[in-house]
Amino acid sequence: MIKHxxxxxxxxxxxxxxxxxxxxxxxLTFEEEHPLSKEALLMDMLVVKKNKDVAINKNIGQIFKGHxxxxxxxxxxxxxxxxxSKVLGYxxxxxxxxxxxxxxxxxxxxxxxxxxxxxxxxxxxLGLTVRNVDKGIYYIExxxxxxxxxxxKKMTNxxxxxxxxxxxxxxxxxxxxxxxxxxxxxxxxxxAAYLNRLxxxxxxxxxxxxxxxxxxxxxxxxxxxxxRGWLDARDVARDVEIKKQAARKMLLRGYPPEEVADIxxxxxxxxxxx
Length: 274
Description:
By secondary structure, the protein is an alpha/beta fold. The chain has eleven helices and seven strands. α1 runs antiparallel to α4 and α6 crosses α8 (218-228). The chain is elongated.
């Protein structure tokens, strides 16, 4: 079992939200750890609409108004009724300090798992309604401001690949999907907070990593591998590249792809992409 250091998720979550909302980047400003006062009181994230008339169709942003506060709790964090009261306090403090009406503020609470105890408190004690509006997205109705809970583990790769996979225990195939979606938006870079945390939290076994090293993702992934000392995985990556070179030669000589895949111990889709 590979032991890894504590993962600091918040910076990566900030990037994950920006990735999810990348289509609306020109309409939004993003502030990490927005200060509520001169004292050490920080909200995890603030997303402000630069143009209030722009509608955000992305599922996590459909609730958005002019000023949108986001509180993130990683898989290692709990979220109690007291935390709920605290983040509601953020809303009121932000409204007061910045002279923003409550009618123009929303609150998003992002968690890995559904907070059953907190929801019981919200529905039972506070008498509010929690409604599931999409996979992993719940609206709290009756609160003073629009409020949603994101249950990242219930989200899908199709709709929210970056928030969904910002945790440990992510399957290799899901990591590959995440890398592929990431590089559609921006270049892969091991120094990027999101990629760094994702790969550190999910150390790949050599056999799992074997076919994830595509031409444009190898360098970023290899930086993480070198840092973590996964030399066996690096050797496997080199072995796969050698097999790919042999497969290319066989394809040029007219061998059927199925035979090339079988001889070189490569998945058929990898051979077809050659």
